[in-house]
Amino acid sequence: MQTAEQPEFLSIVERQMQLTEVQGMAIRGLVEGIRQMHLDVTEKVEEVQLMVQEVRDSVTLNDRECFVLQSAVQIRSTSLTKDRYQATDDKFNVVVGRHRRMIWSKLKVRFSVAKYSHIRRIDYEDALEFAQNFRPEDYL
After folding, report:
1. How far is 4 from 49, CA to CA, in rounded Å?
2. Model confidence at 5: pLDDT above 80
3. Cα(106)–Cα(101) distance, rounded to whole angstroms?
4. Average model confidence (pLDDT) for the chain?
5. Are 134 and 76 in contact (CB under 8 A)?
6. How far apart are CA 60 and CA 111, in angstroms?
7. Cα–Cα distance measured from residue 68 to residue 96, given in angstroms and rounded to the nearest whole number
């Protein structure tokens, strides 16, 4: 009886091994597919990040930011002039204008733009700080 059972047992084990091999191949294929999907998604994420950075780099100041920057330049030019002249002096307005033009000119050079409104939004804080801390002595 044992001799008859062994071949039947072996055939069951062989069949189970075949099924296990088929399952293993299916799992390998699944893992390979997941691996490829991961590579594809990673590549797409990098593309999207580059596109987002390009958009960030191309967006310029909005109206509010332009207004705040204008105010900072006006305040700074007036402050610089008050250090040397009284508001009642005839030269006061001339010197304020000179300082204001110098700040705008150096600001545009610093940020490589033809108009201050073309400054990128990501550079807004730096531009504002530049205007608020401008010192003419640094450019003489």
Report:
1. 68
2. no
3. 9
4. 91
5. yes
6. 12
7. 18
